[in-house]
Amino acid sequence: MQQSLSPADIPVVILCGGRGTRLKEETEWRPKPMVSVGERPILWHIMKIYATHGFKKFVLCLGYKGEMIRDYFLNYDLKNSDICVELGSKSITKLSRDHDESDWSVSLINTGQESMTGGRLKIAGRYLLNDTFCLTYGDGVANINLSELLAFHIQKQKLATITAVRPSSRYGELFTEKGIVKLFTEKPQTQEGWINGGFFILNKKVLDLIQSTATIWEREPLQQLVNLGELAVYEHTGFWQCMDTYREMELLNKLWINGLAPWRVWS
Predict the structure, then answer these.
(1) Number of domains the chain contains
(2) Which of 23, 83, 198, 259 is the residue whose CA sits 20 to 30 A from 222?
(3) Which helix (H) or strand (E) holds 47?
(4) Which domain range does residue 112 map to?
(5) 214 in any annotated domain
(6) What is the reported pLDDT for 53?
């Protein structure tokens, strides 16, 4: 049965409800997923990565300032198209749009102001009709091959697959030769250790491991999956970057503006 899994049938749950306190310069006014990279929220970039690989059903777990995310999608065409407004009749005509997301399905779920990550997932779970779904965070981008990740998950036949990534260095890395700098790489991926990069693929049975809205997904539920031998790990060695701090926001914007964004896997 799993062998017939298609991205078109698999919903993507995105955790969008946290307060993002380490990026308070921006998140005092908006939820972190709505902080812009270029001219679009980072949430749009994440969804675009998934959609490029055929995942176009989204379930957004809203919390802190969730009304801003709701408003963004309710007025999506108006916000992202050139338009003509007839002031007398109030009719609106779309003139052009840079990207076409008309085949996206976006469910906007209020998961509470104080719910933890596991709690948000549990609440959203009532809208998940398929046994298999994706889960990720609303603040991280990567050039991950999601089709390969799905194939890996099917092969392992576990309840859960987590994507492991190498964290980026806090400092630029210098490559020198005879006292001369030959290459400078800003915040490269390190070669030491692996961390949780999000981009999970899960079986709906994992929801049974979440006890309440106070449950943190990354603690008891993941540890139970480890204890049961039901957590597979997909190692992503390419680009990955979260947006936890103002400096990381600036880095992502710099990459995007200069046409150097590795996560831009769409044309």
Answers:
(1) 1
(2) 23
(3) helix 42-52
(4) 7-257
(5) yes
(6) 97
Calculate the alpha carbon distances from 201 to 27, 123, 148 in Å: 28, 18, 12
pLDDT per position as a tens digit, 160-173: 999 999 877 654 44
Per the DSSP assignment, residues forming a β-bridge with 232 are 161
The DSSP letter of residue 169 is P
The residue type found at 97 is R
What are the E-state strand segments in the chain? Answer: 12-16, 36-37, 40-41, 57-62, 81-85, 92-97, 105-110, 132-137, 140-142, 160-165, 173-177, 180-185, 195-196, 200-203, 231-236, 240-242
Mean pLDDT for 169-196 is 57
Other beta carbons within 10 Å of 118:
25
The reported pLDDT for the residue numbered 229 is 92
- Tell me phi and psi for residue 176, to 5 degrees: -120, 160
Per cent of the chain over pLDDT 70 is 89
16 pLDDT more than 50 = yes
Label residues 176-202 b or e (16+ Cβ within 10 Å = b): eeeeeeeeeeebebeeeeeebbbbbbb
What DSSP line would sit under 179-219, residue for residue?
TEEEEEESSPBPSS--EE---EEEEGGGGGG--STT--TTT
